[in-house]
Amino acid sequence: MAFDTGISKKCPGCAGNLLYDENIRKMICHVCGNIYDPKTMRADGNMAVRDTGASDDTDKRSEFICDNCGAVVVADETTAASFCPFCASPSIIRRRLSHEFKPDYIIPFKVNKDVAKQNVIDFIKTEPKAPRSLLKNKELDKLRGIYVPFWLLKARCHTDVVGSGVTVEDASIRTVYNIDRTIHFTVKNVPFDGSKKIDNLLMDAVEPFDFDELVEYSDNYIPGFYAQRYDESAMDMTARIQSRLYAHARQFGKYAVADEYQEIRVNSDFSDATDFSQSYALLPIWFTSIKYNGQKYDFVVNGQTGKATGELPTDPVKQGLKVVFFKWILPGLVIASFVLGLLLSILAFSIAEEYAFFLLAFALILFFAGFTSVKYFWKWILQKRKDIEFDSATHMDPPPTVEHFIDYKQKIEMDKRDSPGFVTTIGEEGSHDYHVF
């Protein structure tokens, strides 16, 4: 979220108003996209909103607009559309391309539709809680190849790492160090999808892409596929950019420290990013939606690597059995152990002495089982009762970690201020700590 600081600052590049964005902690011009450091007003990159010009075959392109969900996709004149690739509605209107359309780069499709469909089926099979009926859903045949718009961010990341690390020598000498470092490195091609029609978690989960296969955009890659125009600019998603770039900065800080210590504990870190730049690219995705029990579930396949992921429902029969077991059967067994143990102990006083011993012993076993369950497992049972109310078969992968995006052509700088704290020696007489000054 951006807000006016109360004092009208002008962009040195175009004289447009500058607004402070608290997500990336920079001044941004929403006219030309220039970014400035608020303290020094030094130029700090650009997040311009733009198409890079009309493509050579603009006259041969059409836009397809869905009356149902509002999706807008661009297709070559040879590509027909009988239903919306996002919501499967047949309410499709075709019109002449009304805006410029030319990304900077594209990764061409490498995975065909048949392979993509099989990968979705294999993905569903890996989740035991998912209903098997999904495997025969006819919507799987409606997979559509879509070039999804992405902003590829490049930035210089900075992180301050403070904590402690331990080195171990001969299993008897442990040296604890105070970690204090500042690290600077560059990431490139960090992807952020510019489409509101596909869930960001799905796009994160279907990564990574091999950006070594990025090629300059050409209309020749489009025939037979759809290409969505971005409806979310980089300036619209500064919160996402901040979250991901700062997470990468923290990850790299821990990786850099972990190489030198057997044990590590990071107490605090501060991360920042500067020198922003971006490219506009189209990345290949196979997409379909499946309706199950009145709900819509989306599935995507990476058109370059074939990785499949999606939103999986939980089989209602399996879910029902789980609810019955954790909400009724398991708690009932715990309560029954106390009740039955009490009844058996009472009964033992009214029968022959030779049988009373066995009844009392069995009653004690039941009491002990119930007591153990309450002491050690009752919290777990109660938590499981809560969890199953929100249970889902979807366990999507998080986005790739920082090592996928480090630009090793740029210099990695590390200001290392680590210092030894104390040494622990372990001998026959026990352990001794020696402080190092």
Overview of the molecule:
With 437 residues, the protein is an alpha+beta fold. Helices cover 25% and strands 34% of the residues. The protein has helices spanning 113-125, 200-205, 238-258, 316-348, 353-387; strands spanning 2-3, 9-10, 17-21, 26-29, 34-36, 43-46, 61-66, 72-76, 92-96, 105-106, 144-169, 173-193, 215-216, 226-228, 263-292, 295-302, 308-310, 413-416, 419-427, 430-435. Strands 7, 8, 9, 10, 11, 12, 13, 14, 15, 16, 17, 18, 19 and 20 form a 14-stranded mixed sheet that branches. A hairpin with a 2-residue loop joins strand 15 (263-292) and strand 16. The radius of gyration is 30 Å and the shape is flat.
Write the topology of this structure.
Elements: E1 2-3, E2 9-10, E3 17-21, E4 26-29, E5 34-36, E6 43-46, E7 61-66, E8 72-76, E9 92-96, E10 105-106, H1 113-125, E11 144-169, E12 173-193, H2 200-205, E13 215-216, E14 226-228, H3 238-258, E15 263-292, E16 295-302, E17 308-310, H4 316-348, H5 353-387, E18 413-416, E19 419-427, E20 430-435
Parallel strand pairs: 10-15, 11-14
Antiparallel strand pairs: 1-3, 2-3, 3-4, 4-5, 5-6, 7-8, 7-9, 8-14, 10-13, 11-12, 11-15, 12-18, 12-19, 15-16, 16-17, 19-20
Q: Structural class per helix/strand content?
A: alpha+beta
**Helical proportion, percent range:** 10-25%
How many helices? The count is 5
Q: Rg, please?
A: 30 Å
N to C succession of SSEs: EEEEEEEEEEHEEHEEHEEEHHEEE
The total beta strand count reads: 20
- CA(first)-CA(last) distance: 47 Å
Residue fraction in strands? 25-35%
| Number of structural units classed as domains | 3
Biggest sheet features: 14 strands, mixed
Low-confidence stretches: 1-6
**Looking at the structure, what is the overall shape?**
flat
